[in-house]
Amino acid sequence: MYEQIVFSGFGGQGIQSMSKMLARCAMAAGLQVSWMPAYGGAMRGGTSNVTVIVSDGEIASPMPCAGEVTAAVVMNNPSLVKFESYLRPGGLLLLNRSLIDLRPVRGDVEVLAVPANEMAEELGNARATNMIMLGCLLARTGMVLPSVMEGMIGEFFAAKEKLIPLNREAFGLGVRFVKEGGGHDL
Amino acid sequence: MGKKILMKGSEAMAEAAIQAGCRLYFGYPITPQSELPEYMAARLPGVGGTFLQAESELAAINMVYGAAGTAHRVMTSSSSPGVSLMQEGISYAAAAELPLVVINVMRAGPGLGTIVPSQTDYFQATRGGGNGGYRTLILSPASVQEACDLVALAFELAERYRQPVLLLGDAMMAQMMEPVEIKEAPPKPYDIAWAARGWKPDCGRARAVINPRSKPGLEARLQEKYRRMAKEEVRVEEVDTEDAEYVIAAYGTVARIAKNAIKTLRGMGVRVGLIRPITLYPFPYEAFSRAAARETLRSFVDFEISEGQMVEDVRLGVGGQKPVAFHGWYDLELPTPQQMVDFILALRQKEGGERQ
Description:
The structure holds two protein chains of two kinds. Chain A is α/β, with parallel strands linked by helices. Chain A is 37% helix and 23% strand. In chain A, strand 4, helix 2 and strand 5 form a beta-alpha-beta unit. Chain B is of the alpha/beta class.
């Protein structure tokens, strides 16, 4: 098993949190994992991105590799432009339809479009978009069991207990969205 | 700790130092390793230690020098231009034979440099950035776990040889998170009669003086120590070298990327191996000369994020037995496995393609 996942969006969309949660979850499941943030000069309004690699063998490079990314979670237009080309054929492109009006150009990847902001607003907290996307990712790839992630949410937010139910709910909403066949309207 | 936790390289190295009994940290923040002093600032007071942000790197290394003179585990960390400022202090510590640990998370290029992962301080580290022809032990990790293990080893070696030990890392390793298990590695008791630790007229031992001045016999003792280090402290990782047509030479995170390239090339039927120096000084010359002597080996390929520094040591090790090719990355570029694969395939083509 080898999954190279890129999470990308703008600052404040929870890119760091959702990628850390996946990394911790994979570690708890006994898998090898690396978490590598985008690094270097950054500008306000630009992209924030993290690469998480999950594998049952030794992880060589922690860097995102063009043509080898198995799943990209893109939360805004610049992220789609930057990372669509990194996907390997047959890879998963999970995009936040609420904020992305560009259309993917690749015909050889699976696209799931998630109205994450609308879904989060329905829950009453626009900041939960990242958990919805994470739910979609795990429901589709199965790399970590959603039940393991639900446990991890409790651990991750241990210091802010009141956020636990909201995040679990948002995560579950993402899982259900994919399981019920959502994501195919671009 | 005994349990795997997910940690950033810079913070993990700080925790590893604490688990190794380091209770004193003096430094001055600089990207890409500011998380290290930040972690120390938060953590050291709770374990009875002292964190002090110096007014400059110059001050920091001299604080380290003073503390090392009392034989307590002490360290500093910085990045390239900061480490340049520390060179005088490191040279003084080499002369005074003080055990101390310096972590350099390298920046790229001369001057202020830039913060992308880089390996442009190899010359400075291995050839002694300060005056006087001294040596520092140089350890170079390729994973967060190895960084932690080498921090513990750095303290141990610093004491065994009474001498500065440098850990050379890059921004990729400092910024990435990986699961680590940080083991306790407390100092083993050793003879510290040399240390300036509260002499009194009736304490029954000679007064200890920490002195960086050259004195009769010092040079001979240092050289004897360096020979002993060169003989006993070489550390190297070899991957798939036995049957290799090509052996990649790479250290630190570049070696990780090379492992991806090796997998791809082996999948294509090209037999490639890796020699990864873990100690840059002493350099594993023997591993290279041994590999060079193998019939199956066509040439070496040295990959670095620099314009070519370690390649000089690789050539010394190979000793003209086989060709040594070089490819470097700089100008904000980072190596990818594909570039390494392409380079080796092109080289193979040039050398006459597949061997019969």
